Amino acid sequence: ERGVKPLIGMMNKTNAEILSHLYPDMFEFTEDGESADYIYSRENLALLPGKKFHAKRNHISKFKRNNEDYCYKPIDATNKEDAYFVAHKWHMQNDSDKSELHAIREALDNFEEIGMFGGVLYVNNRPVAMTIGSKINSSVCDVNFEKAVDVDGAYAVINNEFAKA
Fold first, then answer.
1. SS in 3 state form for the chain?
2. Angle formed by the axes of helices 54-66 and 154-164, nearest 10°
3. Which contacts (CB < 8 Å, 24+ apart) does range 51-56 have?
4. Is the pTM of this model over 0.70?
5. Of 87, 101, 117, 142, which has the fewest CB atoms closer than 10 Å, so is most exposed?
């Protein structure tokens, strides 16, 4: 009625087929690769097999050589503030929109109640990376937040350790 073509985003293949069947030749379906999410198996992120993960394995090896005194701890009541410290520091260094930082605070304040899980990476007992995830369903997890500061390779390590955990 308005002369404007509708735009539907985030549609899966099954729903596109249904829409195409209900309204033949009325829609054009295209994939927007720039806004596609990354989907990996937990096993691949934990083991980093093959050529595809060569660069990530190198980052992790370099991190471990340069930071022998590192550890990964699951987020619990004792280290939620360490996770927030990393997020806050990252936002201060990157002068970013504070809405994500507020969302991280809310997630940590309600961590158990909303079924989140995650971890903090430490180097010399200092928090340098954090990640927070949630289940989408029984077999899919979403990494909602992942931040790292000050240490080269910390992103690769927090991601790998989280997948192992």
1. CCCCCCCCCCCCHHHHHHHHHHCCCCCCCCCCHHHCCCCCCHHHHHHCCCHHHHHHHHHHHHHHHHCCCEEEEECCCCCHHHHHHHHHHHHHHHCCCHHHHHHHHHHHHCCCCCCCEEEEEEECCEEEEEEEEEEEECCEEEEEEEEECCCCCHHHHHHHHHHHC
2. 100
3. 56/156, 56/159, 56/160
4. yes
5. 142
Nearest partner of 146 among 135, 137, 134, 133, judged by Cα: 133
Give tens-digit pLDDT for 45-61.
Answer: 999 999 999 999 999 99
CA distances from 79 to 14, 105, 121 (A): 42, 13, 11
Amino acid (1-letter code) at residue 65 = R
